[in-house]
UniProtKB/TrEMBL annotation:
UniProt source species: Ibidorhyncha struthersii
UniProt keyword terms in alphabetical order: G-protein coupled receptor, Glycoprotein, Membrane, Receptor, Transducer, Transmembrane, Transmembrane helix
Stretches that traverse the bilayer: 12-38, 97-119, 181-203
Domain of life per record: Eukaryota
Record flagged with keyword Transmembrane helix: yes
Listed GO MF terms: G protein-coupled receptor activity
Protein name stated in the entry: CXCR3 protein
Cellular component GO terms held in the UniProt record: plasma membrane
Length: 212
């Protein structure tokens, strides 16, 4: 559990403290996720709701691995790509999906820590493995839908210059563009809110533990 706590600290710094990712934090995050995935395969690790959330958090870095490996393959081997716009948008959207999944899962872990600290008995029926798996599944589904919308919007923008102005797809273009813009704004403000909530939760937990 000490290793898992260190991993959570690393992830909190990577996604909720740093304003943007960099090479060092990304590399350390990938190593931490790989080590965590291996650690969680051990029979010594009991199946708890927090462990389920951490496992899903570590698996989210697979999206980063796909993006990094693809970029390295293109750069190192000069691989030809049939659709540069599609690939570039997809790799960026995978990184965005990873950030959003990680922030939501880290917030779920923080909320569970809050319940354990202040409502250990009352919240026991909520802190179950089943609920943790359901929460992780919902987060993945929502962020996947978000990623699909962003990808559609990026593709329509890339092809808008060659498409006729009276094309039947023009309505789809305007709809996806508006929806993607609203969703990006919502994601931005939600990210700020999650940072504030996480700071408040751990502030309360820290002073509660200090008083004890």
């Amino acid at each position: 559990m000490k290793d898992l706590r260190r991993y959570l600290v690393l992830k909190y710094i990577q996604y909720l403290v740093l304003s943007s990712s960099n090479v060092v934090s990304t590399f350390l995050g990938l190593l931490g996720s790989l080590y965590t995935i291996i650690t969680l395969q051990s029979a010594k690790v009991s199946s708890k709701s927090t462990v389920v959330l951490i496992s899903s958090l570590a698996k989210a870095d697979i999206l980063v691995s796909v993006s990094v490996v693809s970029k390295m393959a293109v750069w190192a081997f000069d691989v030809g790509i049939s659709s540069t716009a599609f690939t570039s948008a997809l790799l960026q959207n995978l990184l965005t999906a990873n950030i959003h999944i990680s922030c939501l899962l880290l917030s779920c872990v923080a909320f569970e820590a809050y319940l354990i600290t202040f409502f250990p008995t009352e919240s026991r029926h909520l802190r179950t493995v089943k609920n943790a798996r359901l929460t992780s599944r919902i987060i993945w589904i929502l962020v996947t839908a978000e990623c699909a919308l962003f990808q559609t919007d990026d593709l329509l923008k890339a092809s808008s210059t060659s498409a006729p102005t009276r094309s039947p797809c023009i309505l789809l273009f305007h709809f996806s563009s508006t929806a993607a813009a609203l969703l990006r704004s919502l994601s931005y403000f939600l990210g700020i809110l999650l940072r504030i909530v996480n700071v408040y939760i751990y502030y309360k937990i820290f002073f509660s533990m200090s008083n004890r």
